[in-house]
Amino acid sequence: MTPPFGVLLMAYGSPATLRDVKAYYTHIRGGRTPPAEQVAELRARYERIGGRSPLLEITWRQAAGVVQALGQAGLPARAYVGMKHAPPFIAEAVAQAAGDGVRALLALALAPHYSRMSVGAYRAAAEEAAARHGLTLSCIESWHLHPGLISALASRVREAQRQCAGDTDVPVIFTAHSLPVRILEWNDPYPEQLQQTCVQVAAAAKVRAWRFAYQSASATGEPWLGPDLLDVARAIHREGQTECIVCPIGFVADHLEVLYDIDVEAKELAATLGLRLIRTCSLNDDLDFISAVADVIRAHLPQGALA
Question: At which positions is Fe(2+) bound (predicted)?
Fold first, then answer.
């Protein structure tokens, strides 16, 4: 009997409850306990979005959708979900796959743009766990120009444009999670890949005016990549604009960085400026996005994986 082939979908993770915020934050900090005021601030952000992030549930739905799409294409597979900073951890997902008899895993971080600090860290965790269990592991490092991803993002920009008085004249701010400036010393491809996605999505959606901003930088005491979304929103207001669209191209699901950093923090700033800010709908487990992810996986299947 042929051992089942496994797909490992990896994401950042989020605390399951408000009580888990401290443990989650501690894990992000490499085991160092964060100051109480920082824990309280992060907990308050989760409170503003209803007490918890929907990321884990969305990721499981994405996994189920990918399995269905692969099955319809004649590629039976099992999907596993592993988080970087919260249960189920990446190592736990790999262990589960091994226990199920899986001998080959294809890992995909649900972040289309590669950086050594983000996708590279997911990959390292998966590789370490796979080696421990004797699994063959291959990883997809980036998929930022996949036509299905570009099409899905462009369709959401067009949907947001239909809500605007200015239609295609309304400026679009594409955003992604900021990272420390030191990644530039490594010739990290992250900024360039983000720009490439922006160019293609803007062209597909016929966006006439767009710019890029980073968001969600952490207070670590070192410089982070900019410009920041809030500063770009202020600049757009100073230029006399009354509307703008924010499209978080670096994120593929609703979670804190979207539901708080954009929907609460950025929108509250925009409201004080008299600027109407419209955020594009997240990709989540929508069919067009799931089809794109399944196609990415099909294109990267190791030879003989499903033989």
Answer: 177, 257
